[in-house]
Amino acid sequence: MADKKIGVMITAFRDGFQSVFGARVLTEDFLPALEAAARAGITHFEIGGGARFQSLYFYCNEDAFRMMDTCRGVVGPEANLQTLARGINVVGLESQSSDIIEMHARLFKKHGITTIRNFDALNDVNNLDYSGRCIVEAGLKHEICVSLMALPPGVTGAHTPEFYAETLKGILEAEIPFDSVCYKDASGTSTPRTVYESIKLARAMLPSGVHLRFHTHETAGVSILCNMAALEAGADALDLSMAPVSGGTGQPDVVTMWHALRGTSYDLGVDIDKLLEAEKVFKDCMKDYFMPPEATQVEPLIPFSPMPGGALTANTQMMRDHDILDRFPEVIAAMGEVVARGGFATSVTPVSQFYFQQAFNNVIFGPWKKIADGYGKMVLGYFGRTPARPDPEIVELCREQMGLEPTTKSPRQMNDEDPAKGRAPAEKMLREAGLPLTDENVFIAATCREKGIRYLKGEAEVNVRKRKPEAQAPGRQAFRVTVGDSPYIVLLEGETAVVDGRPYRIQVEETSVEAARQGSGAPSPGDPQAPAPAQGQPAGRPAPAAAPAASAPDPGAATAIKAPLPGLVSRVAVRAGAQVRAGDTVIVLESMKMESDITTPKAGTVSAVDVAEGDQVSAGQILVRIL
């Protein structure tokens, strides 16, 4: 029997980056690895789109269009460069209007892309229709998707081979033009049996010669088995990654899959020695990046959530940044109920983020006390039809908390009628910022909003997680410290500070700004075993007189409004002296990709605003005081 040649797309430079590094990778850092993979004979690369569009503007201070152009220059004109699109969301977390959907396809063609993979997390064919036609009309290849996952154990109602066959039937009946089909399991939770039966049904339904691809992740530990099942059922191609962004939360490694197929009739058609050399180059390129431990692991609990690899590390990294990673197991445990009661949309971006945000809110604020915006709108029908009807109790909670009625209206139609979406409001943002009205700028403004404008104005910052150099233990350090008009010579060595010849035992610990403002309550400097005062004032010498405090309203009589969770202050809505009513928003806090309005529980006067826009705050930190 002749070997069957299996197509390979290397996902390392898009999905790999998202699944391991939260999509935060600088272009110049990975180009040598891309070049090495091309030299190894790889001709099909996933290179952008999905989270790797917005992340370049949000975290890398880079232009995604320039990245695409650069990658095309590296791999040459014949390679198949592929990106990922989220149906009518294209490359944004929120759905877009028709003009922006059309612009997406046209601009990606302009900047060197060959193929766009197009999926909808709800498997709502209506969300794939217009976006798919735009892709084809722009002269691109269209790879249309059926989105897979396993429901949490004990939950039934969708995500069966028959359900996927109905989705594919809807695509065929709608006569959406496509060049290939991908069965995409972003969470890696589908069982090998489900994969086999689903691909077998698809192969029987598709016209002869249609290219059928399978995509999964190793997160739940069954990716090689599922890939084998897909091949046995008739799949033509697989998505595979390269070390160090393979396995764990990513796709299985191309070398691992090559090994699994040894002695079979399937041939990946790769030069294994050259691929090993390319992986060596890639590992060297990524050696300075912080590798989250969870990105390299199989997590047996994932089928109970299910949390896709592409969202897992992004969320754990955000929780790590906010110092709340210890709550992650609770959030994952809460996801099962959120999925089960929300209508069974596939756990893939942006829905995976909706699920995580709602589970996070259920853990932090109490079960169903705070409906996450994306989750609520999905349950109410604002993103299309979910695979199953959401729990009526949850629908009612979403309606009450959000003040929105359930809808069956087309999301794209609603977006076209929304004056805040589309080209016109994006151009307005650009004009107000004094920026050129190019198509690229319009698209960036429409999909990235304020953060896109910040990038275009040159105000974005790089927030890429790289390993910190090993800290060197300090030796003896000497300082001349002047407090008021009094100079002191301070010698630091280990846990001892010698101030003007007198030793003091010291202990340095991190604390919050709020605690520092309230004072340390340090013991008398006359005690030789006590730490030296913050001013370095030794015994026997009077401390300089403190400057008189500025007059301010007595904070003791004020109600302190505190941050309910860690986050970034994205907007301060009030100023000191302002009059507020109960329920008014005083601060907008961004955390875990959500914006939360922090409101005042009472009417009164703002006596103090303790934070500024851009501040990172901890849970319980005072934000505003109301008299």
What does this structure look like?
The protein is α/β, with parallel strands linked by helices and 627 residues long. 37% of the residues lie in helices and 17% in strands. It is built from 20 helices and 22 strands. The longest helix is centred in the C-terminal third of the chain and has 18 residues, at 439-456. The relative contact order is 0.10.
Strand content: 15-25%
Main β-sheet: number of strands, strand sense, barrel status? 8 strands, parallel
Q: What's the number of extended β-strand segments?
A: 22
User: What is the strand arrangement across the widest sheet?
Assistant: 2-9-8-7-6-5-4-3
Approximate helicity band: 25-40%
| Low-confidence segments | 520-553
Over all CA atoms, what is the radius of gyration?
28 Å
Mean pLDDT: 89
The quaternary organization reads as: single chain
Number of helices: 20
> Between the first and last Cα atoms, what is the distance in angstroms?
83 Å
Structural class: alpha/beta
Shape: globular
